[in-house]
Specification:
The complex is a heterodimer of chains A (854) and B (106). Chain A has 854 residues and is an alpha/beta fold. Chain A has 27 helices and 39 strands. In chain A, strands 3-2-1-7-19 form a 5-stranded parallel beta sheet, covered by helices on one side. About 1% of the residues of chain A have low confidence. Chain B has 106 residues and is mainly β. Chain B is built from no helices and 12 strands. Classes of the chains: A alpha/beta (854), B mainly beta (106). Chains A and B meet through helix 17 of A and strand 2, strand 6, strand 7 and strand 8 of B. Bound molecules: siroheme (SRM), flavin-adenine dinucleotide (FAD), iron/sulfur cluster (SF4) and FE2/S2 (inorganic) cluster.
Chain lengths: 854, 106
């Protein structure tokens, strides 16, 4: 059977995914031959996440197509090729390149296009729309020559577009015809709160403005004239005034379309031609177009199952349009009948102006059922409320308590996952029910990631993640699996909780922590001891080898060097920013030569000296310290290096002094103990020679100041850093980094890099921005002062150590002898030493004499 | 025969020290509760003399030390590796005489 799909957008791709997954188990009897026509130059990508393109995601990150998907399934994908004509009698499609393709079944998944109001001046340069990756590229180009940007349209997409403009660094305005923002989804009261919040972020909001024309501006490129006589100047204009279905092909070739557009379909997603289906945003079902992806996905399943006669075949019976999203860091949710238009509907409203929270419940005339809700600023109740409505469940008594804060600590009416029926849809994007999640748990998916892999729940918009976790945890508990975050058998707490306990109770030793909060009859272990050591160091910054702390340290911290496979250590002196004087290099070289150490330039722009015996470490460090070096903390879960490029001092493209700033940063944060190691880099311009976007903290100089990126990672699972803030002066940047690092230190799990911490953060980058930049948790001052304390109490651990005879005692080869460990054997390779292999050791061939014994 | 290795004051609670006993490398530990243990300093997994540099602890009631290289645990009383039944390290019997720490040679 030949299947041709026109349009490879989100829904078109879901359609072929369903075919790939289910065709084999269907009753079709004949193999399928699938061809997809993709007018864009990129295979299907996640349009919902489009805006994240400006905060660091790449086209590749956004792709929805798993590698080799088409090859593996034997499907054909034509990129950059559209459908131009359909011959329904001959059952063929002609492409824009003139090819003719026969079909047995045709699927139209052509999506929609942005509506641009027919204004004089709408086609001027830098008047753009926001729908495709090509549009984004055009915006990027336009942004380089623009200072001010205006979005026409204050709906959901318009506000999303405004975020994009702000991420591009433009002064941003939103012009809306209606008297409030998001007129479709929320009511007046909510609109007011939302407006205040968005204005507070520096976005200008202009409501009730009817644009009449766009003409030349005086200061900006354009001037927008409004019907009320006012005007606004801007350089770039982005139209986001609604979408229109792409039904031109259907219209031209005789398929039924609605009076206001949209290809008419029935419950099977069939058009009036029994061999032509329409799905997604181009389709009109019962007079409605669904401008969200979840209903489109449902249509894709319906159509695919209908074609292959699958037993799971289900009719499309409409979809819920409830939404929860974060617009520029503001939480907004709308459920069901938000405007209380159902006959007899009654509302409860809760407004907290100082905290900018608005919540409304719409209930039935008898007060028993929930019809709708609007939530701004605090959307915690979303999942529960949505389920109440979708499953037609009875409201608890005092339903208003569902949106009221509980000041006396009394519990809210329970809306636990347990109360939901098995048929309840938990993830609407992917149509996953509670039952399917429970099945997955029963099959052995025991953690959130495997649930996501196994069911696809929470893999699209993520709005259901909290509920998916609740269902999973409830199910695990029922199976007797304890859902714990305990770090080990000695503490029933997560690292974050232990940090909090130590801070609040001013606990300064492991024994005290164990006695008061642990399983105290026994000692701890090699998991909780280093964790506690790290927490105590972040909080109180005492020398790691102070008596009660010393025994908690991993060997690297204990000997302040990195243990190698043969029991020797490596030594890394700090070279801030990778800068080193010739004298410094000579001194390091002299030490390496004297102790015959293997010498290598590290990936972190400094020099590592390998093959030092325990007893040599103090001698080596004495000489390095005398030459002006200090500990590089290569052994600690702490700041490693701040990599730099040469920057404006020498480089013809450099915008700012990246080396100088890298040194300043390295000297500020050196020694900070953290859940895992931290790496920085500073680049002098966007050519990015320091690879800052692969670091936990990355700084890139621009014409207007520093751009700050966070949560990047190289290593095992590389992750690009994301832009946290742009155009900062050095002082503000340091303030943000202080907050960022301390927030990470306080809240991350043990051995969790910033990248993984960020990936597990609910609310994502917007939440992080809120905490760091807008101080949404009110923690900024405390985080800064904690960091200042660590900065002020910094000491070079090695300098302190070599002046403390008690500590020096521990570097003896044996408590009762000064003889060297004869199991450490080196051979020579390329002019330097390396550990001998077991064979070489056994035969003692070519071994190198040990030098520098005390 | 017993050989004096060091004094109790040389042993900081919960921190191992290496000792040379009759040509063999031994790791000595004095735990918080006062117990002193001696096991081989040789880590069979990494083939390096590093056991004395491990973190001591208690797993399900057993006093253990974790190898600092690949983190296997060894029972300080019996030398048995917790993660691998087929591996154990040698143990030595320790005597305390006043402040002196003695190890039996055999
Ligand atoms: C020496 C060095 C390799 C070299 O010869 O260049 C090195 C050596 C080690 N790295 Fe590394 N890494 C070194 C640069 C890097 C880099 C490159 C960079 O920093 O730009 C990366 C990738 C960047 C990143 O971390 O995001 C890197 C990613 C890792 C990872 C993977 C971390 C991750 O998040 O996936 C580990 C394993 C871990 O930490 O759990 C690791 C662990 C190690 C350890 C500590 C493994 C161990 O426990 O023995 C190695 C011992 C270091 C030592 O001095 O004995 N090393 N390591 C580099 C020291 C840099 C420095 O000056 O301090
Ligand atoms: C910025 C933005 C944010 C959004 N946020 C959300 C959100 O938070 N939640 C949500 O549910 N939805 C959101 N949406 C809407 C969501 O993206 C759409 O509902 C979804 O993409 C619809 O999928 P589709 O496949 O029907 O259309 P599309 O994804 O638009 O795909 C249609 C494809 O068909 C191609 N095409 C058209 N005609 C032809 C032809 N003749 N030949 C070949 N190819 C053709 C088009 O080029 C396009 O690639 C957002 C949309 C945008 C633009
Ligand atoms: S890449 Fe692996 S082998 Fe190489 S230094 Fe890093 S951790 Fe060691
Ligand atoms: S509801 Fe969107 S991912 Fe689950």
């Amino acid at each position: 059977m030949k299947i041709v799909v026109v349009g490879h957008g989100m829904v078109g791709h879901r359609f072929v995914e369903v075919l790939a997954r289910d065709a084999a188990t269907a009753n079709l009897g004949t193999p399928i031959d699938v061809t997809v026509l993709c007018e864009e130059n990129l295979p299907a990508y996640d349009r919902v996440q489009l805006t994240s393109y400006f905060s660091g995601k790449t086209a590749e990150d956004l792709s929805l197509v798993s590698p080799n998907f088409f090859e593996d399934n034997g499907f054909k994908l034509h990129l950059g090729k559209g459908a131009a004509e359909i011959d329904r009698a001959a059952k063929t499609v002609t492409t824009t390149t003139g090819e003719t393709l026969p079909y047995d079944k045709l699927i139209l998944a052509t999506g929609s296009y942005p509506f641009v109001p027919p204004l004089p001046g709408k086609d001027r340069e830098d008047c753009l729309v926001y729908r495709t990756i090509d549009d984004l590229e055009a915006m990027k180009v336009s942004a380089t020559r623009s200072k001010v940007g205006v979005v026409v349209g204050g709906g959901l997409l318009g506000l999303e577009a405004a975020k994009a403009l702000r991420d591009l660094g433009l002064e941003t305005h939103v012009v809306e015809f209606a008297p409030r923002l998001m007129a479709v989804q929320i009511d007046d009261g909510a609109g007011k709160v939302l407006r205040k919040k968005i204005e507070a972020l520096g976005v200008g909001i202009h409501l009730g403005k009817n644009t009449t024309e766009i003409v030349d501006g005086e200061n900006g490129r354009h001037r927008m004239n409004f019907a009320d006589g006012s005007h606004l100047e801007t350089d770039m204009i982005l139209f986001s005034a609604g979408i229109r279905p792409r039904d031109d092909l259907a219209r031209k070739f005789g398929l039924d379309v609605g009076p206001r557009g949209g290809i008419v379909i029935n419950n099977e997603c069939l058009t009036n031609d029994p061999d032509v289906y329409a799905i997604g945003e181009c389709a009109l079902w019962e007079g409605r177009i669904y401008g969200l992806v979840a209903p489109g996905y449902q249509m894709a399943e319906t159509a695919a199952h209908s074609i292959i006669q699958h037993e799971k075949k289900k009719e499309f019976l409409g979809a819920d349009m409830s939404t929860k999203l974060k617009l520029m860091g503001v939480d907004v949710a709308s459920i069901g009948d938000a405007h209380a238009t159902t006959a007899g509907a009654q509302s409860f409203v809760y407004v907290d102006e100082p905290n900018e929270i608005y919540k409304k419940l719409v209930v039935s005339a008898d007060g028993k059922k929930l019809h709708g809700a609007v939530l701004i600023g605090d959307v915690e109740a979303y999942g529960g409320l949505l389920q109440l409505m979708l499953n037609d469940m009875d409201l608890p008594d005092n339903a208003q308590a569902l949106i009221l804060p509980s000041f006396d600590g009394s519990a809210k009416p329970a809306l636990g996952a347990d109360a939901l029926p098995m048929s309840a849809t938990i993830c609407s994007c992917n149509n996953v029910s509670k039952g399917e999640i429970c099945d997955a748990v029963a099959r052995g998916c025991m953690d959130y990631d495997s649930i996501k892999d196994g069911t696809k729940a929470a893999t699209s918009c993520g709005g259901c993640s909290a509920l998916v976790k609740q269902v999973m945890n409830a199910e695990l508990e029922k199976m007797g699996v304890e859902v714990k975050k305990d770090i080990c058998e000695h503490f029933a707490y997560s690292r974050q909780e232990l940090f909090h306990i130590c801070q609040v109770e001013k606990i300064k030793s492991f024994d005290e922590l164990l006695e008061k909060h642990g399983n105290g009859q026994h000692d701890g272990c090699d998991i909780c001891k280093p964790t506690a050591a790290s927490i105590l160091a972040s909080l109180w910054n005492e020398h790691v080898l102070k008596k009660p702390l010393a025994g908690l340290q991993d060997t690297n911290d204990y000997y302040m060097a990195n243990l190698q496979k043969d029991g020797t250590y490596s030594v890394v002196p700090r070279m801030p920013g990778g800068e080193v004087t010739p004298e410094g290099l000579i001194a390091v070289g002299a030490v390496a030569k004297k102790y015959n150490l293997y010498t290598k330039i590290t990936g972190g722009q400094r020099v590592d000296l390998f093959g030092a015996r325990l007893e040599q470490l103090p001698l080596i460090w004495k000489e390095l310290i005398d030459a002006g070096f200090e500990s590089g903390h290569a052994y600690g879960k702490s700041l490693r290096t701040v990599k730099s490029c040469v920057g404006s001092t020498w480089c013809r493209y450099g915008m700012l002094d990246s080396v100088g700033f890298a040194i300043e940063l390295e000297n500020r944060y050196r020694g900070l103990r953290s859940p895992h190691k931290i790496k920085f880099a500073v680049s002098g311009c966007t050519r990015e020679c320091a690879e800052a976007q692969g670091k936990d903290v990355g700084v890139i100089a621009t014409e207007k100041g520093w751009n700050l990126y966070v949560c990047g990672n190289g290593g095992m699972k590389p992750r690009h850093a994301e832009l946290l803030a742009s155009d900062l002066d050095s002082e503000t940047l340091i303030k943000y980094v202080d907050r960022f690092l301390m927030f990470y230190v306080k809240t991350a799990d043990r051995l969790q890099r910033t990248s993984v911490w960020r990936d597990n953060m609910e609310g994502g980058l917007d939440y992080l921005k809120d905490v760091i930049i807008n101080d949404s948790l009110g923690l900024a001052a405390e985080l800064e002062s904690q960091m200042q304390y660590v900065v002020d109490t910094y000491q070079c651990e090695w300098k302190t150590a070599i002046n403390d005879p008690e500590i020096m005692k521990r570097f003896k080869p044996f408590v009762n002898s000064n003889q060297a460990d004869d199991n450490i054997v080196f051979v020579e390779e390329r002019g330097q030493i390396r550990p001998a292999t077991p064979n070489e050791k056994a035969g003692r061939i070519n071994v190198v004499e040990v030098v520098g014994m005390a | 025969m017993l050989e004096k290795i060091c004094t109790l004051t040389d042993l900081v609670p919960n921190i191992g020290v290496p000792a040379l006993v009759n040509g063999e490398q031994v790791a000595l530990f004095r735990l918080k509760d006062g117990n002193v243990y001696a096991v081989s300093n040789f880590d069979p997994f990494s083939q390096a003399n590093v056991i004395a540099r491990g973190i001591t602890g208690n797993l399900k009631g057993l006093d253990v030390v974790a190898s600092p290289i690949y983190k296997q645990h060894f029972d300080l009383k019996t030398g048995q590796c917790v993660e691998d039944d087929s591996v154990s390290i040698k143990t030595y019997s320790v005597k305390l005489d006043g402040n002196d720490v003695l190890i039996a040679l055999n």
